[in-house]
Amino acid sequence: MVSSRFLKSQLVFCDPRALALGFFSLVLIFTSHTVFQNTYLAANKALLPPPQYIERMSFGFNEAIADTLWIRALQDFDYCEAKIADNVCANNSWLYLMLDAITNLSPNFRMPYATGSLALTIIISDIDGATKIFDKGVKAFPNDWPILYRAAYHYLYEVKDKKKAAELLIQAGQNGAPAWVFALAGRLYSDAGSMDLAEALLQQIIQENQDPAVIKRLQDKINSMKTSLSH
Known about the structure:
Radius of gyration: 20 Å
Shape: globular
Number of strands: 2
Number of helices: 11
Structural class: mainly alpha
Strand content: under 5%
Number of domains: 2
Largest sheet: 2 strands, antiparallel
């Protein structure tokens, strides 16, 4: 389904012939890519990301393509084509490339930053890819405290950058997050602070009815953290 964002952006006068030509070219590109991907998938049991620089050949259909790719990405949030350890995917995974293309096509599309980045960091642990998407999200939505809060979790738990995590928590607190994030920012330099941040994030995504796979994987990470702290 085409989003209202796209429909609103397209309510302009234009040459019908140019529009038809652009739409035909778009269909041709996606048909060719879909056929190639299906053929490759059958032979190699792997998914292909969108063509590089797809935003340069979108013919003005950026929003529609971004929506389509997002729906496709949702179907395989847990896909990892190259595992380097249990529950750890190689950097620049298929999901990262999908999210990167989506956010290049539609930089103000919030959901890929808010939920796609969680899948990267929590489900498949593509740490480099998650860092890039979180950084893009923080830049695009500097006043969106849930994105800032989730980025703080990523920087603390996965990147091990406590200073960056604390800065993101303070930024989140300055933009509507609960007041306790300021106290939490001061506790990040202890293992207890790490646990507090992870458990608070778990409660947040449960309340938002996030993907069950994200919830389960984060719970597993918290249990692992508790085991480490008890030894």
